[in-house]
Amino acid sequence: MKRAACALLLCLALPAQAYVRSRNNNGQGPCIWWPTHGHSFQIDAQGSPDAPLDATYDAIRKSFQTWAAVSCSDLRFSEEPLSTSASNRLVGFESGGTNHNLVLFRTRNCAQVVPANDPCKAQGGCGNAYDCWEHGDGIIATTTTTSKSSTGEILDSDIEMNDAPPSSGNKLTFTTVDGLPCTRLGETGCVRIDVQNTVTHEAGHSLGLDHTPDPGATMYASAPSGEKSKRVLGADDKAGICAIYPRGAASVTCTSGQGGGCSAAQTDPGAALAALAVLLQIRRRSRRRPQLPMSSSTNPATAARCQSGIEN
Amino acid sequence: MLIALLLAATVSGPGDVRSLTASSDAVVHARVLRRSSAWAPGGRQIFTTVVLKTLETWKGDPAAEVTVLVPGGEVGDITQTVQGVAAFSAGEEVVVFLRRRAGSVYGVERWALGKFSVEPAAAAPRRALRDRRGLTCQGCRAGEADDLPLDELRARVLEGVIR
Description:
The complex is a heterodimer of chains A (312) and B (163). Chain A has helices at residues 2-13, 53-68, 110-113, 120-123, 126-130, 195-206, 235-244, 269-285; strands at 21-22, 42-43, 102-106, 139-147, 154-162, 174-175, 193-194, 222-223, 252-254, 262-264, 303-304. Chain A is of the alpha/beta class and 312 residues long. In chain A, strands 2-3-5-4 form a four-stranded mixed β-sheet, covered by helices on one side. Chain A has a two-stranded antiparallel ribbon with strand order 1-11. Chain A is globular. In chain B, the strands form two sheets. A five-stranded mixed beta barrel of chain B has the order 2-3-4-8-7. The longest helix of chain B is centred in the last third of the chain and has 13 residues, at 150-162. Chain B is globular, with a radius of gyration of 15 Å. Mean pLDDT of chain B is 86; it is low at 1-7. At the A-B interface, α4, α5, β4, α6 and β8 of A face β1, β3, β4, β6 and β7 of B.
């Protein structure tokens, strides 16, 4: 009863937010969350042929560091040594196996390298089997996050980028420069698909955030060509990440079903309340980007906002 | 242990009907007959096979029954949820922009951008609706229709094919 009362008071006190949490099981299961605040990641050493290797690595590192820098949370992302083995360029999850949270660029097009009679053509999995991009020309990047259906606990997350020659049209080009958006083919020194912009957004997904209706947020679903603004988190992104991973407290889950009820991963109402108080403080400080009303939602069927309560 | 696998995707635009028509191998107005999920060869990833009964072909020469492969699905106690891919349900009437994988097996062109769900026949005029909320789109333009009459969608596709 006391916890419920506290939650209600905090609901009334919290400023409006728009962030959305991802749910598994087609939107009917629990929100997804890491039990740890942050996770290890591993960059595949091949990088992208579009950009200098060191700049590409740095862009990926900065993407994770951006989330780690949110002061109302305490995320930490340890980097594993660069992955140099071609046989480890595998996306997905292997139960009982060794899993890495890999970031890699696919530089071959499955449509061009996989034999027509290979079963993966009809059943899927060509990407891992042939180290190629199998999702078609128009897909830029995917994040694969594995979690337990019953609890939403994340077990693994991989980011895959399409750096393969297309079946038709122009190849997507990743850049790491700080210039203006490119305006014509062949132009150099300008921004096309910014690695840091893309990975920062995808990393937000891997942490359990869905798309937000806030156009000023990194987790906003649309991006113009040559965009870099998602490198920097908006207030809504910070609020979302701190709601899931409040500094000094357990990760916050939310329940399955249509509701948005939340609870600490380890039952600890005091810690959760403390974390929400920190969140309030950060929200007051962070006014860089416009706010949207709490009622906004991009995808009510597949996501939940969990800032409005701390327990079921 | 129940496991869910969740993907998020970033796609490149534009996502208008004319562009999708141009980049697709086939476009069909169809009904979903059935769907089933299985681990891909080699494991790690689950894919769902969706079988469509073609009601009308708008582009290409697909078979009367079209098989569409989409990432994600459920196998036993393991679930793979895919944000950004086209979602299908049995009995649903759809318009799908298809990318050929092999033989009569296709993928959906640009995932959720390449699928419209057709409202039940009771509604008149029937409308085609697109749900792109799971996607991040770089280069999509304002005014790309996600809700338009089925007849208009058909006309736009056919116009794109003729061009």
